[in-house]
Amino acid sequence: MRDFILSFKGVIAFIILVVIAAGAWKLKDVNIIPAPNDNGGGAGVVCTADAMQCPDGSYVGRSGPNCEFVCPDSTAGTPPSGGGSGILPYNSGIRGTVMAGPTCPVERDPPDPNCADKPLSVLVSVSRSSDTRLFAQTTSDVTGAFELSLPPGNYIVKAAGESMLPRCNEISVTVGPNGYADVSVSCDTGIR
User: Fold this and answer.
1) pTM for the full model?
2) Pick from 11, 29, 94, 191: CA 20 to 30 A from residue 84's CA?
3) Given the DSSP bridges, would you call strands 92-101 and 179-188 parallel, antiparallel or unpaired?
């Protein structure tokens, strides 16, 4: 009987330790944000460290005394003036389309509309001109369109299919402090 009581106490002690460890693990995911009060100090508000995606594609965390998600203001679908400050979202970047062609084995004169280049949904990678490492990437949609918010600078845009073909050309592009640079990436299907 004594062994049973000792093992029962051991199990209870183990369960208590697990509950304490789980509580400590959960506390590592919270931020303490000072809440303003009359004398300028802050009692502190605890906000969870989760994030939400805004309509413009950027992500924000909870902030303020009410731990609310606050998305950047996007009035009339245009980005605010001024360049990015090193923190997303930037007010500049690259917009473009990826098109593949030829789509027919024989080109005709006048051109057949059914043989026009077709949009391509592929992985689009961007690196800085001065560095070959990946800087950003996205996937073009079914219409071939893609968009990346980037800080001002010189970039190389590459599109790549899952195999050797279609083979897409690289585009050099300069992104200014305001607005998006437009690019068109052409991909060769290999059809002759």
Assistant:
1) 0.53
2) 29
3) parallel
